[in-house]
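Re: the 316-residue chain
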Amino acid sequence: MSLDPQVEALLAQLSENPAPKLWDIPLADARATYDGMAAVLDLPDVPIGKTEDIVIPGPAGDIPARIYTPVAGGGAALPCLVFFHGGGFVIGGLGTHDALCRTLANEAGVRVVAVDYRLAPEHAYPAAAEDCYAATAWVEQNAGDLGIDPNAIAVGGDSAGGNLAAVVALMARTKKGPQIAFQLLIYPTTDFTDAEQWGSRTQFGEGYFLEKETMRWFESQYMGGNDAARSEETASPLGARDLSGLPPAYVITAGFDPLRDEGKAYADALNAAGTKAEYIDYPGMIHGFFNMQGVLDVARDAVKVAAAKLAAALAD
């Protein structure tokens, strides 16, 4: 296994001009650093049929969200992807994942509802999970007004957002709603309990964009000192006692991603429990590559494949 040449060139460029460690700078600067990097690495100006910024009632106040209608989407009821952005539960937002949401909407022919859930450390666990669940339930309840088919709603996200998508699917099963048809899990973090058991966290913990110290910082900010909750299924879905009866999933990992092993383990655990999970690894890629469509050819191809899987699942 070797790095994709475009990834290798990108990492070399980043090593020549290293960004500050996120935990060493003020939180506002950390968020601005991530925003700036997203703007440089992703596709600029992706055409879209329509975007609309809205607010969704949440458990602690309004949740900002953005609805993407694909090109030629029109006013007909469409399948929907409720999308949760990555960023370690601490950074990221609607802007950092705008290009990805636009691409998924267009390629899959779905409305995407991107959720700007509460971030840590201001809002520690389980605030993000509660917001994401509430937003998904609201989308189903208001499907008619939103132009969404209530029988064709998926959840998805990358990294921390992949964790939240998996968690929302578990919460929806427990609470007997909303009805979720599919999970799109892009290099999800699935285990907060024992990071050292995952070889990829050690093997690729330095020098491959996402580093293990950054992950530790993210996790500590999100958990807010409540380490006893790390084993709860709404934090670590891989540790859920029962993974049966969940929506089918498409699980994506990257070969040089510290989160690779736990992502694959989650796909394996879903299948072992009788929940259909299709797994794919992009061996030459690094964490975050779905947001690097502007510089990585494989990223553009991978997003198109994921969109096709989403479209097919919601058409069944």
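The radius of gyration is 18 Å.
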